[in-house]
Design goal:
The structure holds 2 protein chains of 2 kinds.
Chain A: E1 8-21, E2 24-37, E3 41-45, H1 52-59, E4 67-72, E5 75-76, H2 82-92, E6 93-96, H3 108-116, H4 125-131, H5 147-159, E7 165-169, H6 177-194, E8 197-202, E9 213-218, E10 221-227
Parallel strand pairs in A: 3-8, 3-9, 6-7, 7-8
Antiparallel strand pairs in A: 1-2, 1-4, 4-5, 9-10
Chain B: H1 2-36, E1 41-49, H2 50-57, E2 62-68, E3 70-76, E4 84-91, E5 103-107, E6 117-121, H3 122-127, E7 135-140, E8 143-154, E9 174-180, H4 181-188, E10 193-201, H5 207-218, E11 227-228, H6 233-274, H7 276-285, H8 289-329, H9 341-368, H10 371-375, H11 392-396, H12 399-410, H13 412-449, E12 455-464, H14 467-472, E13 477-486, E14 488-492, E15 495-498, E16 501-504, E17 513-515, E18 519-521, E19 528-531, H15 532-538, E20 545-550, E21 557-566, E22 574-577, H16 578-585, E23 590-598, H17 603-610, E24 616-621, H18 622-676, H19 681-717, H20 731-753, H21 761-766
Parallel strand pairs in B: 4-9, 6-8, 16-22, 19-21
Antiparallel strand pairs in B: 1-10, 1-11, 2-10, 3-4, 3-7, 5-8, 6-9, 7-8, 12-23, 12-24, 13-16, 13-23, 14-15, 14-20, 17-18, 19-22, 20-21
The chains are: A alpha/beta, B alpha+beta.
């Protein structure tokens, strides 16, 4: 889907992030430059604490950097405006987390509707659920679904609003490999069929095989960028 | 936690206030009565020879008997336009008073040789700024005298001093004064005689028997029936006030403590939920269930103790304040406010028990978990689609509203109890605000719709009917309407009531018999018209026959039919046609007094004239009665309303605050997720506060029903023979209560909502619940 000539969807320039934990200063990001092209699937790989989640949170408007800029489709994000970040998340970003964060009191379909109700151009919730292979289980509550199913509901919820960016933080972290593959399949399908620019965090190097591009993180920096010549299908992976 | 402590404190404070007020009033009353030798039995006569006093003293069971003269007078107080009614009581010429001893507050007692000296009651002296050495004019049986104040005093007979026929103490228009016996006897032509006797009894004497003997002795001398201390006006008011306090001490603290128990339960349940892991760990280390239970019990006890401590301080202060408030109307020479430990111990243990009982279930749940299970996170709540989810209405809901409703449906008991707590706060408000409606309605019915006279004049002795004409000729009198009054015993079967009968002329307009609902009632030419209260006490219905024993004049007896029963808020009166009453009493065409309506511009001229007319025993002004009523109510009831409003706010704040805090702690993760999905702060505030909002709306109708029941209970508990507070609840009162409760809920919500701004989105998402 993606090629090197497609437009830049999102870019970050010279991002730093310093946390203060008690008296200790933690430098989570030490000057990161990154760009995501339209329709690209990028995997962020690295040990825990290397700064990949911090970067993803900043790119998704969940957190603000200590310095640096984030440019979405040529316009700089107003990082100091709570309201602007909220609108950015609402209209352009879909998130998937390790712990699915579904609303337990709503069924699968209702969890998706939650987002489509406030989105500008959503797809019908059944369609989103069908894309992740859950058309049959729409009226189940989270407590009635397996972990993999719950994560796929979370993906359906993230993509139902047709986001420009899909940000996934360890989406398979809590799943066994068989279930994890189903989840990755769903993500890949979205990336291909909808052309959603996707960034995916993992510390599982095998998963990096499905990406167009892999960013290696260590110690708050991107230490290496690798382009996969061949994107492998999740079904071919094993871990 | 503080919110719970405050609700417990409110309950404890109310309980302590009520208990210590009761204790203090009872202790003060009994000490005062004992020190001043307050009599056990009181009797009046027209004129009895002194020798009869010795016969009375010899009745078996009598410890002491003291005869005296009690008369009425009209005073002309300097700088006060209206004539003032005074009750004059004789002091023994030699030696101290045997019974009902005065407590001199300033100056001295009268000296035997100086007939114009008086001691005046302290409240009256205060109202008119009288000091020993001052003097004023008085009309004693038609002759004007100048009386010299030599002292001020308080008497156990007039702790609550109301004029004959009055409803509330009016210290400006009614005063009690004491004169030398000889001086009073000379003024009222009662030498070597008495017209009042008071007695104290030996401990094992039977008051009923003594009363019968006194009535037999005094009957021929115009006795109007002796009565025991319980029926003595001042004491009766005091006792019923104490009884009302006892009532209050039962119901209101119960409400607060029930809500406190619920809140403790709610908060402890949540706390224990969050500390599951620690509980599991402690059990894994070998701590027993009892040890863990005790750990949480200590926590509840700590909160409860803080509540009780705040409540004790507040309650002791309120109790003292409340008791002092009483002393404005109930005049004691001293006040014993020495709250014993009892009140505090009761309030403390009741409050702590309520808090512990509230947390019991939560603690029991905590210790029942096997350690391995306890160390795991709790399994997520299981929701189910109910039939309601499938309705068309449910389909129209947006997801945030669905989240709110599903939570309520998932924990219906918790939602119901929270609503009930809020409803209780609304009901306390309604009950408090209802008093305003009730008092307005009472005044409107009794004084505005029921009566049209401006003043009521009572004569010392019966006057011929043509007095009416001479009154009508006075300046400013527009109309005069006579009435007749006789003291009587009305009996039916074994029920006997000492109740005077009022004779009303045919076609009465100024002061007719007035039914609360039906309005003016024409009195039939024969038979009695009884108030419902009296009919209940006598157990009679319309058509029954009662025996009337007139206690004056020739003391005739008659069997009379009950012609009608009517409803009134005040007293337990009985009415008859005036001519029929006069025929029965056999006194000819006479009147006891007049109701007059007055032309406003000539009022002052009339008042001046009235001060000089002989033979007037008392004058009551309708407007003054209304004013005093409101003034007295303003000083007591409205203050109480104020603090009930404050207390009920504590209730609703306690419930609202805790509900929202718990919802926030349970849903922080959900709310953060929604923020991540792009919901704004206001949108997630809706989800957080919507639940409490719905519970508040639900609580309003429940509160209205509870409030009505509580108001009903309070009015029936406060029902006495003297007055009944009508159960009137205006729509506006429900509205006001609901608005106050909503305001409290909104304020709380606004405060807790601010925490949403500090919601840590990332931390929440990084952790598994």
């Amino acid at each position: 889907m993606e090629n090197e000539t497609s437009a830049i969807a999102l870019e970050a320039r010279d991002l730093t992030k310093i946390y203060r934990m008690g008296t200790v200063e933690v430098r989570a990001l030490r000057g990161v430059d990154v760009e995501l092209r339209e329709g690209e699937l990028v995997v962020l790989l690295g040990p825990s604490g290397s700064g990949k989640s911090t970067l993803l949170n900043i790119l998704g408007g969940l957190d603000t950097p200590s310095s640096g800029t984030v440019i979405f489709r040529g316009r700089e994000l107003a990082l100091d405006s709570e309201r602007a970040l909220n609108l950015y998340r609402r209209n352009h970003v879909g998130f998937v987390f390790q712990f699915y964060n579904l609303i337990p009191s709503l069924t699968a379909r209702e969890n998706v509707s939650l987002v489509t109700e406030i989105a500008r151009d959503p797809m019908p919730p059944p369609e989103a659920l069908a894309m992740v292979g859950l058309a049959e289980r729409m009226d189940h509550f989270p407590a009635q679904l397996s972990g993999g199913e719950q994560q796929r509901v979370a993906i359906a919820r993230a993509i139902a609003k047709r986001p420009d960016l899909l940000l996934c933080d360890e989406p398979t972290g809590a799943l066994d490999s068989k279930t994890g593959i189903l989840v990755l399949d769903a993500i890949l399908r979205i990336n291909r069929e909808l052309g959603t620019t996707t960034a995916l965090i993992t510390h599982n190097a095998v998963i990096a095989e499905i990406a167009n591009r892999v960013l290696y993180f260590a110690d708050g920096r991107i230490v290496e960028t690798r382009r996969n010549a061949v994107q492998r299908a999740p079904a071919e992976l094993a871990w | 936690m503080l919110a719970i402590a405050l609700v417990i404190a409110s309950g404890a404070a109310l309980l302590i206030m009520a208990l210590t007020t009761i204790e203090s009033l009872e202790e003060t009353t009994s000490a005062y009565y004992e020190r001043t030798r307050f009599a056990d039995i009181f009797a009046r006569a027209k004129r009895a020879p002194d020798s009869l006093g010795r016969d009375i003293a010899e009745i078996p069971g009598v410890r002491l008997a003291e005869t005296r003269i009690v008369e009425g007078a009209i005073l002309d107080m300097p700088g006060f336009a209206e004539p003032v009614v005074a009750q004059l009581i004789s002091l023994p010429e030699r030696g101290p008073q045997l019974l009902n001893a005065l407590v001199i507050r300033s100056g001295r007692l009268v000296e035997p040789s100086r007939p114009n000296e008086v001691v005046v009651s302290e409240p009256f002296a205060d109202a008119h700024r009288l000091r020993p050495g001052d003097s004023f004019d008085a009309v004693l049986r038609g002759s004007k005298r100048r009386l010299l104040v030599v002292g001020t005093a308080l008497s156990p007979e007039f702790v609550y001093a109301i004029a004959p026929g009055g409803l509330m103490p009016d210290d400006e228009r009614f005063g009690v004064m004491w004169m030398g016996r000889d001086a009073l006897a000379a003024a009222f032509d009662l030498e070597s005689s008495f017209n009042s006797v008071t007695l104290s009894l030996l401990p094992d004497a039977d008051p009923k028997e003594v009363i019968q003997r006194i009535d037999a002795l005094l009957g021929p001398f115009g006795g109007v029936g002796a009565y025991a201390r319980a029926d003595q006006t001042s004491n009766w008011f005091l006792e019923s006030e104490i009884a009302q306090q006892k009532n209050m001490s039962r119901i209101l603290p119960t409400i607060f403590l029930a809500v406190a128990a619920f809140l403790t339960n709610m908060v402890m349940a949540r706390l224990i939920e969050t500390e599951r892991r620690e509980i599991g760990l402690m059990k894994a280390f070998g701590y027993g269930n009892l040890a863990i239970g005790w750990h949480y019990a200590k926590m509840v006890l700590a909160i409860g103790t803080i509540g009780v401590l705040i409540g004790s301080v507040l309650g002791a202060w309120l109790g003292h304040w409340n008791t002092e408030l009483y002393t404005q109307f109930y005049r004691f020479p001293f006040l014993l406010y020495r709250p014993g430990p009892a009140g505090f111990v009761i309030a403390g243990s009741v409050s702590l028990a309520a808090a512990l009982a509230g947390s019991l279930a939560a603690v029991r749940r905590a210790v029942r978990l096997p350690p391995a299970e306890a160390m795991l996170p709790p399994s997520p709540p299981i929701y189910r689609r109910t039939w309601a989810s499938r309705t068309a209405l449910a389909g129209a809901l947006d997801e945030p509203s669905r989240m709110i409703l599903r939570r309520i449906v998932r924990w219906p008991m918790r939602a119901f109890l929270a609503s009930l707590g809020l409803a209780m706060s609304i009901s306390v408000l309604i009950m408090a605000l209802q008093w305003v409606d009730a008092i307005d309605s009472l005044v409107e019915t009794v004084f505005e719709r029921g009566q049209h006279q401006d003043a009521t004049v009572a004569f010392n002795d019966l006057q011929p009917l043509d007095t009416v004409g001479s009154f009508e000729n006075l300046p400013g009198v527009l109309a005069a309407e006579p009435y007749r009054y006789v003291s009587a015993h009305i009996s039916h079967g074994h029920h006997v009531q000492r109740q005077g009968i009022i004779g009303v002329p045919h076609g009465a307009i100024l002061s007719p018999v007035f039914d609360n609902e039906r309005g003016r009632i024409e009195v039939p030419p024969d038979g009695l018209v009884l108030s419902r209260k009296l009919a209940e006490l006598l157990e009679v219905a319309t058509g029954d026959t009662v025996t009337v024993e007139v206690l004056e004049g020739r003391q005739p007896q008659a069997e009379l039919p009950v012609a009608q029963i009517f409803d009134t808020y005040i007293g337990k009166p009985a009415y008859m046609d005036m001519d029929a009453l006069n025929r029965m009493a056999g006194d000819g065409r006479v009147v006891s007094g007049l109701h007059v309506s007055v032309d406003a511009p000539s009022r002052t001229a009339l008042l001046t004239k009235l001060k000089d007319i002989p033979n007037i025993a008392s004058i009551l002004f309708r407007q003054a009665a209304i004013d005093t009523f409101y003034k007295t109510m303003g000083e007591t009831i409205f203050i109480f309303i104020g603090f009930f409003v404050a207390f009920s706010m504590t209730l609703s704040v306690g419930v609202t605050y805790n509900s929202i805090r718990i919802a926030l702690s349970e849903r922080a993760r959900e709310l953060a997720t929604l923020r991540v999905l792009g919901f704004s702060r206001w949108e997630i505030s809706y989800i957080l506060l919507g639940e409490v909002g719905i519970l508040t709306w639900i609580s309003i109708p429940i509160g209205a029903v509870l409030g009505f029941s509580l108001a009903w209970y309070m009015t029936s508990a406060f029902e006495t023979e003297l007055y009944r507070v009508p159960l009137v609840l205006r729509h506006a009162t429900y509205g006001k209560a609901a608005l106050i409760a909503l305001a409290a809920a909104l304020t709380c919500a606004a405060i807790v909502r601010r925490r949403l701004d500090r919601l840590d989105l990332i931390a929440v998402l990084k952790t598994r619940e």
